[in-house]
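This is your field. Pick holes in the following sequence-structure pair:
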Amino acid sequence: MQVFKFGGASVKDANGVKNLASVLQKVGFKNTLIVVSAMGKTTNSMEVVIKNYFENKAELQNSIEDVKKYHNDILLELFENKNHPVFKKTTTFFDELQSILNVNKSPDYNFLYDQVIGFGELISTTIISEYLNFIGLKNNWIDARDYIKTDNYYRHANIDWEETQQLISSNFNNSILNITQGFLGSDANNFTTTLGREGSDYTAAIFAYCLNAESVTIWKDVPGVLNADPRYFENAQLLNKISYREAIELAFYGASVIHPKTLQPLQGKEIPLLVKSFLNPEATGTTIGKDVTLEPMIPCFIVKKNQVLISLSSLDFSYIVEENISDIFNLLHLYKMKVDVIQNSAISFSVCVDNIYNNLEKLLHHLKAKFKVTCHENVSLYTIRHYNENAITQIEADKTVLLKQLTQETIQVVTK
């Protein structure tokens, strides 16, 4: 059994869908599960739909129509016969989306987000499944929500591994080509949940773990795992081999090519993770596995934009001790702040966070009751694994350094 994951960039248009089929024909698809994301930037477009639902009802229908037109254009390129069942199937999904928006009574943004956002994956996998069948690659479309069960922590749901394993073991036919959605699960009440942005990689790992797969392959628009994101760094180099431990470190610090939760289940069963190019599917790519040394051994650069640096000091110059730090972390947890860097001294405490849930103002209001607070928004967090002086100089050039922290193998720098 092998698991393939294709991201949105790989199926952003009709040519991308055709290329996915070509990849399968070149590398083989026996006993394969394909996990697919929403097409192109559909998730962003669906977020606009959700935003308009809460903030701008006048534009709601227009934003839905934009998503419809995007997918319909792809359909018209893939299927000459407009009477093909795929047109009715995608229309049914849009009708279901409209119905959810019409009857929703919940004011909870996170709940509605999860009920709406996943239509991108449901529609993309339907189109791809129908196209593969159309060209003779027979496959079975499955709804990931019937297999992956979670709690109701909407937008970042936690897996119920026992129930998920039981459902997959009992109901999954691994003798045929299957296609399913990344990113999605369901809770005990069968409401849709999501696993966090970029969670399709995690979906592939969950299925691989429960199916005892031989490998997971993530198909990207890059040759494999690079030592830096080429959007932000020049001369990025391919990493041929990475250990699970090193990959988990890179993922933790925000390497965008791998979802932070993806590697743990694979490591548990020593399932290799391959990262390969859908533009050159027969190239070697990157292998992530057990007991391998980083090859080549070079600095690895990671940047996270739009971070928030919060610096605290005591109002009376007293020490910031364990009790204070406990209070701070309780508030960070309460307001769902993802902590990326911590630094403290006798009378100060700094933390760089991701304001995913837009709770910054509430957090600052709470903190100002006990501390003197300085806040820098829209800062960048740079992390370098296996750093050297040249790498540090490259990062700090022409920037204002607000915080720097070094360990034996890693340096983190917050800049403005």
The two ends are 47 Å apart (CA to CA). Residues 60-78 form the longest helix (19 residues). The longest strand covers residues 300-314. The CA atoms of residues 156 and 271 lie 24 Å apart.
